[in-house]
Design a protein that fits this description.
The chain is an all-alpha fold and 370 residues long. The protein is built from 15 helices and four strands. The longest helix has 29 residues, at 226-254. It is globular. The chain starts with a strand and ends with a helix.
């Protein structure tokens, strides 16, 4: 195998999108001109190629600097999945092809089985490192396009949706995850998952269809990266709670003179929000999602929690990987723009994913209030 070269990732940043009132149900589906969609997605792809151009200069040997060990492991995962598909079978979830003779449980590893299977032709023809470069490029452009689609679906203007997609797809968290954490950097499905959960909980007109779509998305994300699935559900829960309270508070405020709501009114609104989320269409949709997701992922979940080599406890120091509060506003030395002593995070390396920047945080707070 050629000697691997290390290159540093570039950082792409953009301004935060302007605030728009959240609309989940009954949102107008704005019909964009085809050239508008194509133009925005082409810009995302061009930006993704600009960020990864050092890798494309040496696609079979170059890896992002900073975390070559994880990149090598992902290359092994790509080759493992492609070899299984080439022999007409699914990759085994427990294998002794690594860590002989005990073997490994791939569900307790960041094996990215679904991308590995889908990129089998690339791996067989050009090698696993090329597949990882393709996955990295698709992660940037696809993640941005995914949020752009969700925002446009809810009536956000093309410029605002394009900026929102860029802020998400090329955020510091994703550029930082490019250092060997491919399962985190490929964040195409989280916007779709959050949108599907929010649509269900706030009254989808087709709960069964929406539940089916959510179950498919959740199962796919499970075999890309489980922790991203958990974080997507957590984000959706917070979003639904805020949207439900916001909707009901607006109704309550319209029935009385302007002013601060009394605590009793806030509690009453919270109760009505809970009853809204517990309505039968919501239950039907979520039940459909659980059934579909469990049916598609039961093989993996059974292997992970009941099968051989099940993990108990954390293999790492519990306090080893973390981010300090200051890391939200202080960029690490891996960011394109940073101060000499700006790295304040405790974990170091590819795990520093909390940076947003003071400007973006202020813009988000102002936009949320507005």
């Amino acid at each position: 195998m050629p000697e691997q070269q290390s290159v540093a990732p570039s950082d792409v940043s953009a301004a935060a999108p302007a605030s728009a009132e959240p609309r989940v149900t009954g949102a107008p589906r704005t019909r964009a001109r085809p050239w508008g969609w194509a133009g925005v997605c082409a810009c995302y792809l061009a930006a993704a190629l600009a960020v990864t151009w050092h890798l494309w200069a040496h696609p079979s040997s170059a890896v992002v600097a900073g975390n070559p060990e994880d990149s090598a492991q992902f290359a092994w995962f790509m080759r493992y999945a492609a070899t299984a598909v080439a022999h007409g079978r699914l990759p085994a979830l427990v294998t002794t092809a690594m860590n002989v003779p005990r073997g490994v449980n791939l569900m307790w590893n960041t094996s990215a089985l679904l991308p590995g299977m889908l990129l089998t032709p690339v791996t067989l023809l050009a090698g696993p490192q090329v597949s990882l470069t393709v996955l990295l490029t698709a992660g940037f452009a696809g993640s941005a396009a995914s949020l752009f689609y969700v925002l446009r679906r809810h009536g956000v203007s093309v410029p605002a949706a394009a900026i929102g997609g860029a802020v998400y797809g090329f955020s510091p968290a994703l550029t930082h995850s490019a250092m060997g954490h491919y399962q985190l950097q490929f964040a195409v499905l989280p916007p779709l998952i959050v949108d599907a959960i929010a649509a269900l909980c706030l009254g989808s007109p087709r709960p069964v269809r929406s539940g089916l779509w959510l179950g498919l998305l959740a199962a796919a994300q499970l075999f890309i990266g489980e922790e991203v699935l958990f974080e997507s559900v957590l984000a959706a829960v917070i979003l639904v709670a805020v949207l439900a309270l916001s909707r009901l508070l607006r109704r309550a405020s319209s029935a009385r003179p302007p002013g601060l709501a009394r605590p009793r009114e806030v509690l009453a609104v919270a109760g009505r929000a809970i009853r809204l989320v517990r309505s039968w269409p919501v239950a039907v949709g979520l039940a459909t999602a659980v059934v579909v997701g469990a049916a598609l992922s039961s093989w993996g979940l059974w292997t992970q929690f009941v099968g051989p080599l099940t993990q108990h406890g954390s293999p790492f120091a519990v306090d080893g990987y973390k981010n300090s509060l200051a890391s939200f506003i202080s960029p690490t030395s891996f960011q394109l723009l940073h101060a000499g002593s700006s790295s304040v995070n405790s974990s170091g390396g590819a795990e520093d994913l909390s940076y947003l920047g003071l400007t973006l945080i202020v813009v988000l707070l102002v936009a949320a209030v507005a």
